[in-house]
Amino acid sequence: MYGLIVKLTSAPGRRDELITLMGGEDSHTVPGCLSFIVAEDAVDENVLWITEVWESQASHEASLQAPAVKEGFADAGTLIVGFEKIATTKPVKNSSHPLHGEAAA
Amino acid sequence: MYGLIVKLTSAPGRRDELITLMGGEDSHTVPGCLSFIVAEDAVDENVLWITEVWESQASHEASLQAPAVKEGFADAGTLIVGFEKIATTKPVKNSSHPLHGEAAA
Fold first, then answer.
1. Which candidate in A13, B2, B54, B88 could, as Cys together with A42 as Cys, close a disulfide (CB 3.0–4.6 Å)?
2. What CA–CA distances, in Å, run from B28 to A34, B25, B32?
3. Phi-psi region for residue A13, left (φ > 0), alpha (ψ -120 to 50) or beta?
4. How does B67-99 read in b/e, with b if 16+ C-beta sit within 10 Å?
């Protein structure tokens, strides 16, 4: 497995737009994406934390080539003012419940 | 939802023991735990990243009272040399595939 923890900072007051952008594609439909958590920072109203788990680094890199993702990055130009890769990881345990209202894969 | 991102540093060379400890209780069996990702840092061989998603802060706090968790913390005394809460979060999107070999909830 391959993982990332990323800290995103939106332009002031625009975190909700960034959430919409990040949630634009359901990860259930992204090949090789095992988990994709988008979480608001509890303190900084402009910060989002992304925790990703992929089957492999290759599947992650392939996802970045998808047209929807490329378009998303283009839209994010003025929306994202900070992008900090906190960690690149090798996930070893990934226990998840699908949320209520979300279909299991 | 309530979330945490935590950076743990094991005593030198003892990360595997820490993984075993962290994985001692399957989060499927922990009430209110929606996701629990344990990931090795790709660079620092003694660092683990934990990303947690809980139904509520209350369910997280309740989990800390479980006997197995309390025992785990007791065992971790010499094993964990660094505990850094990177972020407290409000997860807003949590898309997950159960891993191969893990039963869906």
1. B88
2. 16, 8, 9
3. left
4. eeeeeeeeebeebbeeeeebbbbebbbbbbbbb
Write the residue in A5, A7, A97 that is nearest to B49 by C-beta: A5
Look at residues B50, B54, B91, B85 and name the one whose alpha carbon lies nearest to residue A38.
B91
Two structure tokens written together for B31: 């009430």
A2-89 CATH: 3.30.70.100
Residue B1 one-letter amino acid: M
Mutation target vs A (from B60, B94, B102; most A CBs, 10 A cutoff): B94
Kindly state the tokens that stand for B24.
Answer: 């001692």
- Treating both helix axes as pointing N-terminal to C-terminal, what angle do B15-22 and B67-75 enclose, rounded to 10 degrees? 170
Where in chain B are the domains?
2-89
How confident is the model over B6-60, as pLDDT tens digits? 999 999 999 999 998 887 555 557 889 999 999 999 999 999 999 999 999 999 9
Nearest to A95 among B35, B87, B93 (CB): B35
**CA triplet A35, A22, B33: central angle to 5 degrees?**
35
Q: Is the pTM of this model over 0.95?
A: no
* Better-predicted residue by pLDDT, B55 or A68: B55
